[in-house]
Amino acid sequence: MAEKAGSHLGKIGKREIARAFNIKGADRITLKRILKDLEAEGTVERRGKTLHRAGTLPTVVLCDITGRDKDGDLIAIPVEWDTGEHGAAPRIAVHVPRKPRPGESIPGVGDRALLRTEEVRDPDKGQPPYTARVIRLLSRAKAQILGIFREMPNGGGRLIPVDKKNMGRELAIPPGNEGEAQDGDLVAVEILRTGRIGLPVAKVRERLGSLATEKAVSLIAIHTHGIPNAFHADTMREAESAREATMEGREDWRDLALVTIDPADAKDHDDAVHAEPDRDPNNEGGYIITVAIADVGAYVRPGRPLDREALLRGNSVYFPDRVVPMLPERISNDLCSLKALVDRPAMAVRMVIDKFGRKKRHKFHRIMMRSAAKLAYPQAQAAIDGHCDEVTAPILESVLKPLWAAYDLLKIEREHRSPLDLDLPERKILLKADGTVDRVIVPPRLDAHKLIEEYMILANVAAAETLEEHRQQLIYRAHDEPSVEKLNNLAEFLATIGIKMTKGEVMRPQAFNGILARVRGTEHEQVVNQVVLRSQAQAEYTNENYGHFGLHLRRYAHFTSPIRRYADLIVHRALIRALHLGPDGLPDMERDALAEIAASISAAERRAMAAERETVDRLIATHLSDQIGATFEGRIAGVTRAGLFVKLTDTGADGFVPAATLGMDYYRYDEAMHALIGNRTGETHRLGDTVEVKLVEAAPFAGALRFELLSEGRVAKRGGRGRVSQALSAKKNAKGPARASHKRGGRKGERAHK
Fold it and tell me: What is the pTM of this model?
């Protein structure tokens, strides 16, 4: 009876059983008595009016989605389950449709959902005994807190949050609420209750990984931002079954001496370059530049598992200790990597420039190439500077010198175009074998870097122009001009250092460059670079073209990195379709669909940037955590009503100085000056000021540092220490006060009390 009734979809109660077995009249009373006896014996269980076989799940069950398996599938457990009677709650593999219907909600980790379950007959070892489909999401994911679980001697534990906002706020995890967490694990918890006395109480909902075994601080950022880091099984199957592309439909360019120039530690090589003088007498002094890009579209086909997951990821994410790739290594590091002396399919653009670096014409080709050499940036630069090795010596005259000669022409065009030229050095963290910080360096900015950058910009422009010419839809890389509000704020700030900029003035990149040139080499250089950067809009992907302000280009698209950016793959497919280069071009697509893709990959890019930045913060905070009390030199990198953000000179670490610790004064926040100004003393702490700070607290897993400011602020000389200059006095109507402190710490405090 139970087996036949169990085949009925939906809820199963007395009515459904009676209908299934055609039980009528007085026999229903007998059925009721039998069901009561079965329930008393524990053979069946009742939930409301629903019955099911004891120790099994009913057909429809309320569940919490708690995590993902190794293939990336969602895993759920029932909300109600008697562990004492039946042991651990069964795991349920939740099926998520690949192509959800419009408006259909997609479940995620932490959601509560009503599921329709199906028991798996003879499941493979380790596989969930049930599969399910979502009937309805009852609630979106509850706000969960991520943290590091620390065991307590008597059971239970403490959670050390990994969010800077929760720095120093531990949570108590009572015995029985630890889940599967072990000491040092990254876990997600749900707060059960809070009170005025004692720590908030939480329950572990999901074990995300062990930092102790994986030695991967990036694991925190991956889970905090929901970055997919395990490829789905069907994605891996497609990648592993891929075979090398053939010559069919391709031009044979294997004799062209294209070379790759990348970071020394690069594992994939998706662009190669070549240059030679143009022999056309009508273009005397000109060059022909070729840029070849890995033909990812040959392996990643629209709508297939590889494509779906690449779109979900949007881009590769680069951490100091690992890379979370957009595509499996079989594709990114093997079939699509332009390895030296190996045949590889590519999309190539041949561009003719004149002696002033202006592009005269270009043409795209689908080719088979063979890289002549794999070079690192310092290696290529050293060869040009006269220090060849066994790889660069044979190609110096024939390959490298023509590349640099063509670059010299592109520099002329760049200077004429005058893109935004901010001086913002980037730091790189070097790790030890155990994953901890060895040192932080600022790699030199070589001409080799700039050469590749200019070649790629030229190719990206060519891609956008070709697609527009063929009226083919594409995704642009666009960068809007600064808003009027941001320009007005910039004008107010520049006025405080004697630089006039009319409010509401229409700005072009060369105007910003003029401002930057005026402060180069002065005490204001760093702060002006930062303020100009903050005045800029954020670049994004879009199907609407509004130009690229920073590069000062009318049209621009990303074409040169399809291994790590989905936008570039879209552009490749669009070129294949527009130029009839094969059957694997961009499929028919509504503008709204392309707009959704652009929005999705823009969001993925912002997610990646935040995750990368936070991981660097955590690594450096861990590195400095044993140096409490040490003093450092830094620069004020941000000013808010709450206090000062200070960036250390040596490591680039960011920390916070609360306004409440600045001194016995009432500090006002001046938005235009990017400063905190003491009401009584006129003492000013301003963006860009060089300062000395003492490290007083470090929260490694949160990536948070707290400093005490040891340096005095700027004080106007005119009229004595307590008087403020006219420039500062004019700002008395600042927008709001910072907190006033009644304490003064460090050497600065001693001076104040004297």
Answer: 0.76
